[in-house]
Amino acid sequence: MTNALVKAISYEVSGEVIDLQPETVKNYLVRGNGSVTDQEIVMFMNLCQYQKLNPLINEAYLIKFGSQPAQIIVSKEAFMKRAESNEKFEGFEAGIIYEFNDEIKQVIGAVKPKKAELIGGWCKVFRSDRKQPIEVQVSIDEFSKGQATWKDMPLNMIRKVAIVNALREAFPNSLGAMYTEEEANKSSDIPEYQPKERKDITPNEPPAQSDQEVVKSPIDEAKAKMQSLFAQLGIEGKEAKGEYISKNLPNASNPPTLQELTGLIAIMEMDLERRQSFDADELE
Question: Looking at the record's lineage, which domain of life comes first (predicted)?
Answer without folding.
Answer: Bacteria
